[in-house]
Amino acid sequence: MEFNDPAGMLRVCTERLGEKAGRQFAALARRGFRLEPLADDAQATGRCRLGGPALLDPGTPWPEYGGFPLSLHAVLDTDALAPWLGDELPVRPGLLNVFYLDPDVPYQDYRHLEISGTEVCRVIPADPARAVETAAPEPARSYPATPVHAADVIMLPDSWDVENSDVEFDEDEHWGASSLILDTMGGFDANTAGNHCAFGWPDTSYASAVTDRDADGPAIHLLQLAEDGELGWGWGDAGTMYFTIPAKAFAAGDFSKAKADMRCC
Hints:
By secondary structure, the protein is of the alpha+beta class. The chain has helices at about 5-15, 20-25, 80-85, 175-185, 245-250, and strands at about 1-5, 30-35, 50, 55, 65, 70, 70-75, 95-100, 120-125, 130-135, 145-155, 195-200, 215, 215-220, 220-225, 240-245, 260-265. The protein is built from five helices and 17 strands. The strands form four sheets. Strands 1, 2, 3, 7, 8, 9, 11, 12, 15, 16 and 17 form an eleven-stranded antiparallel β-sheet that branches. α1 packs antiparallel against α2 and α1 crosses α4 (about 175-185). The mean pLDDT is about 90.
């Protein structure tokens, strides 16, 4: 769910959920971005882009998984995103290069390897002053370089990323907090579906949560990649790819803990 201003978001939440639950739900909001292709007079946000060569510090090895070079899917320019994120960006990692195993690599070529969400993806920071364009080695796929405009939005968690302890609800009327959000937020539910997004909350309209939780709270959502015919990638049947990182690792700037999670119908 996304909004353009905190006051409008709070008003909708309290109107639909009631004063107490509405304020509890609104307190979960995070700042994020829709990553939009350039159109009309929109300008690229810093060096943010989808596809293209990586922007890596000199000497940084290209990431691999089991001998297969990963494919560069996006670069996020956190210096350009920092003014909107504010305290929600506790470190300034510069450029974040987001890699994932090419989905077109035949499964039989890597099925003997142990697969986990942290092994098939990498998020590699780079110093903007030193980073150089680095072409993907064969057989990694190189997607078209597509600069994007990062549109500021305020995001609420989708119903499936809400836990029962987050929001007060009537147990006689709802089977859980997710039921409350599904029933009452209506058309404001899951409206980032089909979009590329950074930070904020992911759209998790596949009836299951994407955002892991631990003692430090919900994981940080780094990137949501939808199917994109123009760029040439897809994630199964109407699928979406999510990249998240534990909150403690994010605060420490340890992007080796980032993981990928693909969901499809």
